[in-house]
Automatic annotation (TrEMBL):
<keyword id="KW-0812">Transmembrane</keyword>
<feature type="compositionally biased region" description="Gly residues">
    <location>
        <begin position="171"/>
        <end position="184"/>
    </location>
</feature>
<feature type="compositionally biased region" description="Basic residues">
    <location>
        <begin position="1"/>
        <end position="14"/>
    </location>
</feature>
<keyword id="KW-1133">Transmembrane helix</keyword>
<keyword id="KW-0472">Membrane</keyword>
<feature type="compositionally biased region" description="Basic residues">
    <location>
        <begin position="646"/>
        <end position="656"/>
    </location>
</feature>
<protein>
    <submittedName>
        <fullName>Putative membrane protein-like protein</fullName>
    </submittedName>
</protein>
<feature type="compositionally biased region" description="Basic and acidic residues">
    <location>
        <begin position="634"/>
        <end position="645"/>
    </location>
</feature>
<dbReference type="InterPro" id="IPR007941">
    <property type="entry name" value="DUF726"/>
</dbReference>
<feature type="region of interest" description="Disordered">
    <location>
        <begin position="631"/>
        <end position="676"/>
    </location>
</feature>
<feature type="region of interest" description="Disordered">
    <location>
        <begin position="1"/>
        <end position="23"/>
    </location>
</feature>
<dbReference type="GO" id="GO:0016020">
    <property type="term" value="C:membrane"/>
</dbReference>
<dbReference type="Pfam" id="PF05277">
    <property type="entry name" value="DUF726"/>
</dbReference>
<feature type="region of interest" description="Disordered">
    <location>
        <begin position="151"/>
        <end position="202"/>
    </location>
</feature>
Amino acid sequence: MPRGGRGGHPHPPRRPVDLTGAISQAEKNDLVTVVNAITEKMHNDISKIFDSPPVSPVSTDQGHHHWLSLPLLHRKDATEDKENMPPSSYPLQQIGEGSASYRNAHKIIEKEEKEAMTPQLRELKKEALAFFRKWQAVILQRIRDISISDPQSAQGGFRGRGRGVPRAGIRGRGGRGGKTGRGGLTLATGPPRVPSRHTDLGLAGRCPPIPNTLWTLPQDKRKLLLHIVFLVSLSLSEYSANSYALLMNLTSCLNLPLDFFYAEEARLAKTWAQAALDVSDEDLLSLKAEEAKGQRKWKGRSQSGAARLAPALTAAGIAAGLLGPMAEGGRAICNLFGINPAKPTTKMMEVFAREIQDFGLLPIHGECQADYIDARQRPAGDRRFRLVIAMGGWMAEDEDMRKPWLCLGRQTEAYVLRWDPVALLSLGSSLETVIRSSAWSSAKKEINATTIFTSLIKSTWPVSLLKISKIMDNPWSIGMVRAEKAGAILADAIMRHKFQGERPVSLVGYGLASRAIYTCLMVLAERRHFGLVESVVMMGAPVPSESRVWLTLKSVVSGRLINVYSEQDYLLGFLYRFSNTQFGVAGLQEIQGADGVENYNVGDLPKGHLGYASVAGRVLKDIGWGNLDSGTVKQERPARQERQPKKGRSPRRQSRQQRWGKQERPAKQEATAVKW
C-alpha cells in the first residue's frame, strides 16, 4: 500500500505466524472482530467529514457572501432585546435581520456552496477512503493470518472467561458470517457490552469503547493482545497516524489505561531505535545495492542490529513472527527513523535553506540540543514513534524560541521549527512597538464599539491606527510570504524527503506559524498524501474560515484538528484587512460546517495577538492535548479572564491577576493569512 497513492513502498511478504499457547482461537476471533469494528468506525468518521451539510456565508447589502458575518448572525440570534437597541448600533443592519428575503437568499447561497464544493471534495473523499481501505485490509488480513493450533479451542474448552460457542452477537470479518467450528469460536456467552467500570475515564471519553468481550479477560492477556496488534502495525514497515488511532481505540476497548499504551509505545520505540543505530551505513548501502540487483532479501554479512531486534523487543518469540521481514532486515528499521545514508539529513536541510533563510529543527528535550542535522545523532533513548513540530509566529529579541513549547511532554519526539528568524524578529519588534503606543489603546476602544467583524466588512478603521500601520504592514506582508514558503518546504520534507522517517507528525503553532501549517496541509491534500499528520493545533490563524478550506485540511489530519481563536484579537483583524476577508478569518471566529474540526475560544488575551506565545501551554492543556509535561505548564491566569479585574472581585483575586500581569514575557510576533 503506497502512502497516499503516490510513491511509497510495498508491504513485505508475510508468512503465517503461529501464536499457539499465547492466545486462543476464540480470543483471536474476537480480536479480529474488535479491530474490524474500530477501523469501520474510523472509516465512517472520514466519510462524515465530507457528508456534513455545509454552512453558507451571509449575504451583505452589496451582494457579496461574507463569512465574517456569521459571528454577527449568532450574536443577533442570542440577543432578544433588539427593540431596546438603536438601529444605528445594531451590528446586522447591513447584513440582514432574519427576514424572508434573507432566508431565501441564504437558501440560494447554500445551493451554490454545495454545487461549488462537490467536484473537488467528492474526489478528495474518494481518494481518502480508498487509501484508508487499503490500510484497513492489510491490518485485518495480517491479524487473520495468525495461526492458532489449540486443540482445546476446537473442543470448546480453551482458557478464557467464556466458553467456545458460535457467536450469536456482533459479527466481524474474522467470523466469516457466523460459521461454526474454530472459525466461529468466541468468548461471548451473551451480547457484547462495554466495560462497566473504565480504568481510564479520560481515554473512554476521548475514544468511546466499542462493545466487545475482550475486556473481561485478565489484564495481562489484554496487554498481550494490544502488544500483538502493535507489532502487526509495525510490520507494515511504517507507523502511520491511522495505526496510532487504531491502537488508541483498542486500548480503550480493552479497558487498559492510556499510560500503559504510552509506556509500551516509548519502550518499543527505544528498542527499535537502538536496533536501527546498530545497523551501520555500510550495511545499509550494501542492502540497497543488493535490492537494485533484484534480490528481495538481504543476505549481507552483517545484520547486527536487525538480528537482535526480535529478542530485544519482548514477549517469548512473538515479536519475530509478527514482524516478519521487519525483524530480519535493517533497512526498514532504519527507514522508520529517517536513517538513510543515501539521503542524509544534512543535505536535505541545505536544500530547504535555499528556499527560506535559516530553516532547521531544534530538539525540545533530550541529551542532544543541537540542530537536527543527522538522524544518527539522536540517542535511542530520545527516540519515539511520533513527532511533534511546534512553530512560533514571531520572535522577541534574545529569547529562546523553545520557551513557549517546553510544556510538550517526552512521550513524543518534540522539535521547534526555526524558520527565517530575521523576518520573525522584525515582525515581533514592530508589533510590540504598535501595541505599546497610545494610538493602539484608543483604536481598540473604537473597534470594540462596533466589533472587529464590522470593521473588516465595512473597512472602517480608526484614523489613529491607520497612521501607524506602516510600522507593521511591511513586516507582516514579508512574514506572510515567508510563512507560505516555510509551509510548502515543511510539506515537502514530510512527504518526499521523509526526514521524520515513516512516523506520524503533529503540528502546533500560533500566528504566522498557523499560516505555514495551513499551507503545509493544503499541499499534502493537493498531492493526496494521507496518514502522515496525526493532529494539528492552529492558534490565532490568519487563514480562511470557510468550511471547504477546513474540510480539505481535515482530510489529511487523521486525529484532531483544532482552531483556537479570539473575537477580541483586533491586531490580527487589522493585519488581515488586505487579504480575502470575505472567506473569513479563522483566528477570529469559529469554524462552521466542517465536521471533525474542533474550536476553542481562548477569550480575551492580555496582550492580544501577541499573548498566544505566553499562554500556548495553558491553551494546550485546556483543549486536552495529550503528552504534556504538567510541571512546565505555567500557572498562568486562564486565558478567558479579562485583563483588568472587574468590580466586585475579591482583593485576593485582583492581586493574583496583577502578579500574573507582571510575569508577562516580551511580546512575540504575529500570525499570517492565506488566500484560498
